[in-house]
Design goal:
By secondary structure, the chain is mostly helical. It is built from eight helices and no strands.
Length: 216
């Protein structure tokens, strides 16, 4: 599945889990969790859809977080695991049970097929509606220190869309990808602008305090 599908399904499942267990998940972190298994593309020697997509390894990694934060971690765990259990299970095989077995599990639906494109469009539209209805989209356009994390899903969207790496984005899914790219870029720029403004304000206050100290 393409990045837009992973992000959309990750957001929907993470948000639903949060509502079910009365946890308010951080949206940028949910976006990151939804695409993080694909980090194997950038690590030499790792097979794509291999160890980083294993439900066993993901669960082991999350165990310390569950011990520390308990149910608060659940939305992010679900957002990560859906990547393999839903997105990549539909369009290709994944080593779900690595290292117990090297077998790939999946439906192997062609990622360029009408079925997959329709599926990704459906989840994109649903996620957009939920983002708007819950005001999560509005929150992404307000400064917050975690919004810089959106650089990770942004990279997963930009590489295939503009650089055709590790694969290209079909024209039918170009609009959803661009939509998510714009959301990420705008959110990051708003946060950067706010950070620069706060830095200038802090420097100004420090300077004024120094001057005042000199004359007292």
């Amino acid at each position: 599945m393409y990045a837009v599908g992973h992000i959309a399904i990750g957001y929907l499942t993470g948000k639903a889990t949060g509502k079910l267990f009365r946890v308010n998940p951080n949206i940028p972190l949910i976006f990151v969790a939804s695409v993080i298994p694909d980090v194997d593309i950038l690590i030499p020697g790792l097979v794509h859809r291999g160890p980083t997509h294993s439900i066993i390894l993901i669960t082991l990694i999350f165990l310390p977080l569950f011990i520390l934060y308990r149910g608060k971690v659940l939305p992010y765990f679900i957002a990560v695991t859906q990547h393999s259990l839903i997105g990549d299970y539909i369009t290709g095989g994944t080593k779900l049970l690595y290292p117990l077995t090297e077998n790939y599990y999946g439906l192997h639906v062609n990622v360029e097929s009408r079925i997959n494109i329709a599926t990704e469009w459906t989840f994109f539209l649903l996620s957009t509606l939920v983002l708007i209805e819950t005001k999560d989209l509005e929150s992404l356009f307000r400064p917050h220190r975690t919004h810089m994390l959106l650089a990770i899903p942004l990279l997963s969207l930009l590489l295939p869309t503009l650089a055709k790496f590790p694969t290209y984005v079909p024209k039918e899914l170009f609009i959803p990808h661009i939509a998510y790219i714009l959301v990420c870029i705008v959110s990051i720029l708003i946060d950067v602008k706010a950070s620069v403004k706060n830095l200038r304000k802090h420097r100004s206050n420090t300077f004024l305090a120094h001057i005042a100290k000199k004359f007292t």
